[in-house]
Amino acid sequence: MLKAIDLTKKYGNHTALNQLNLTVNEGEIFALLGQNGAGKTTTINCFLGFIKPTSGQALVGDASVATSPALSKKYLAYIPETVMLYPHLTGLQNLKFFSSLAGFQYSKEDLIYFLKKVGLQDDAHQKSTKGYSKGMRQKVGIAIALSKKAKALLLDEPTSGLDPKAANEFSNILIELAQQKTAILMATHDIFRAKEIAHQIGILNAGNLVSQVEAASLTALELEELYLQTV
Amino acid sequence: MNQLLIISFFKTKASWIGLASIFFAGMLSLYFGGLFIEETQENERRAILLQKENIERNVQHHPKDIGLLLYYQKFGLVNQVSPLASLAIGQRDISPSIQRVNIRNLEEQKYNSRLANPVYQLIGNFDFSFVLVYFIPLVIIALCFNMISEEKEGGTWALALSQTNNTKGMIRAKLLLRYSSILVVLVLLLIIAKFYLSIPLNQKYAAFCLVSVAYVSFWFAVVWWVISFHLSSSKNALVLLTIWVFLNVIVPAAISGIVSLVYPIPETFGTVVKSREGYHNKWDKEKAPTIQKFIKHYPQLAQYKHPKGARFSWFWYFAMQQMGDDEASAQSRELQQKVKKRIRLSENTAMFFPSAHTQLVLNSLANAGLQNQLNFMQALEKFHERKRLYFYPKIFSQTASTTEKWDKHTLAKYEEQSEVNWLQLLWPLLLGIGICLGAARLNQRKFYHL
After folding, report:
1. ipTM
2. Quick one: which of B26, B11, B8, B279 has its CA closest to B133?
3. Domains identified in chain A and CATH numbers
4. Cβ contact (<8 Å) for B4 and A98?
């Protein structure tokens, strides 16, 4: 569903991403590990079309991000590290706004369904998001992604800053989405959560994919050791 | 989406403050405009009474000597104030709306006028055109400068960009929302003005409204162009305020400076001096040459004579007064030509600067510009000439003052008639809008990236 072919991004002399090749199939969660500046966010931004790669291709399904941006974006949903919402609108209104941006017109009941599905407490639906915690905003972000019914989901350090309970709830939602055939590419620093939910794990170092393993093939401690050896 | 954009916009205090400030500033300007019109109408009423009283008093004092009566008696010409002048006072506060002249030499009297408080004139008027030209653009800038940057700085841009390829449409909708909000307030003010200031619904008022809307549209186009560069909020604010200062402060001052430099008018002082010399130095000279010149000017008055050997006659006296005007006429014409050239240069230069153009155009529609003052001066010359030609035979044939039907010498009125040239009014603004929107299109690609 998601495919990077020799994906390269250079900023002057600095290579942010060097001939990255990876595939995320339907129903698969691919966790990208790496230090700050390793190229994780650059990879996600290339898939989203936010930045133009220097060479190589990013494919979403059969659609090339470079040549069919509208089609590739239709298949994609995105959850940034910190979901920022319009503070003057309620959670429900934010969800309605972003889903309508993607071309979906949902009824109030449908919107409430998405918010309930991601576990946002009922009394928060109609409250201004000005007072939302980060976890609550992340949940609205997931609801936005769900409402798009996307075939692929891109996450940029989505559990960063979440409390353990919220992070656990978040992981469960991702697993459920993967079971529904969604391809998920997740950039994260959280080795243990990556091991817990991902099928494939890639380790990026200075723009190079230095290692790619099946999550089931090693323990969390072995993964940590591999990570420390490669970065 | 649009409904939520509206909710989001109106839940922001800044939006209400901006729109309310336009409304209250606009209402205040209408109030001041109303006061100006009232004051002008009151002046006219008083001038009518004053002229009537003066005539009665002069006839009482000089029942036999109409020459002496007309030495003193002044007749007024009113430059009728258009109701639109309540919206654009222009130069009406420094140029008198009523000129009272006697039939002696005119040039000297042209510049005798009532001056209101000079400090007030220095500050200028808080009229509707001021609110439109200077204040509304500031509110537009305040409401729009961060339409894109607040999304980027607030973190919602990335999420929006991941949802759609049409983020430009979203920003355009935000801009249109602000545009329509300000237009609603503007139209509301113009409707209130129509009833509160009794402005007739005619072509000029339609042009005034259309120019106002086009000017507001121009500023939205400027904002759209600047924010399309996707700069930070502070940079947007800085650039937009610099444009505001350039267009609204520097350009008008520069145009005024250039016009004075290109067309200096030493004739203003020279004409008055020439005119005074024209008749004053005739006191000590032979009367015959003065009278000959006068007869040459008015051959139809050749039948009247100066009594032989007399030291004084009204015939000679008014001939001498006439010389003041005749000898200053070349300079007076030159002065008018220069003023015309100044007007043309200002108008032509302002066509490339929408704020200056709008101010000039609104003044012109309201008959409150320099052109109107020039036309009024020309009307005053004709009015003065008519009075002279009417009274000269009566004076020279020594008619008794009491035989004249003075009731018919009421305050005369001059009303400027001009056509609306729609293209000339609107093209500079439409061109400005077109250039800004066209330039913004060059930044189109920036809407698809972070």
Report:
1. 0.89
2. B26
3. 2-82+150-230 (3.40.50.300)
4. no
